[in-house]
Design goal:
The chain has 106 residues and is mostly beta strands. It has strands at 12-15, 24-31, 36-39, 44-49, 59-64, 67-68, 72-75, 82-83, 85-90, 93-98, 104-105. Helices cover 0% and strands 47% of the residues. The radius of gyration is 17 Å and the shape is elongated. The chain starts with 11 loop residues before the first strand and ends with a strand. Part of the 50S ribosomal subunit.
Length: 106
C-alpha cells in the first residue's frame, strides 16, 4: 500500500528516532510504495560493489539507506523549527502549510 507522504524531495527534515536522532538533512528521494525517505548524510551504510570491468577493483561504497517517513519531521522554511504540515487549498491549488507559523512551505 502506498503512503503519500507530505514530505517532498529537497525538503529539510529533522530525524526523530534512531542512531542519527536530532540531525538534519535534505531529502534526496521519496519512496512512497515503501513509506521511506532517503536523507542526505543520514543512515549511512556500506555497500560492497563487485568489479564490473576487467580493470576495476571491488570496493566498499558508503550510501544513504532509506528510513521510515514516520521517523522524520519537516523543518519550516520560515520559522526554522520542526513542525507538522497542514494542507490548504487556494484557487484549487493544494499547498503545504506550517502548523506553527501558518506560512506556506515551498
Amino acid at each position: 500500500m502506498a503512503i503519500l507522504p507530505k514530505i517532498k524531495r529537497n525538503d529539510t527534515v529533522r530525524i526523530l528516532r534512531g542512531k542519527d536522532a536530532g540531525k538534519r538533512g535534505k531529502v534526496l528521494a521519496v519512496l512512497p510504495l515503501e513509506g521511506r525517505l532517503v536523507v542526505e548524510g543520514i543512515a549511512m551504510v556500506k555497500k560492497h560493489v563487485k568489479p564490473r570491468q576487467g580493470g576495476q577493483k571491488g570496493q566498499r561504497v558508503t550510501i544513504a539507506a532509506p528510513i521510515p517517513v514516520a521517523n522524520v519531521q519537516i523543518i519550516c522554511t520560515q520559522c526554522k523549527k520542526g513542525t507538522r504540515i497542514g494542507i490548504t487549498r487556494e484557487n484549487g491549488v493544494r499547498q503545504r502549510v506550517c502548523k506553527q507559523c501558518k506560512s506556506v512551505i515551498e
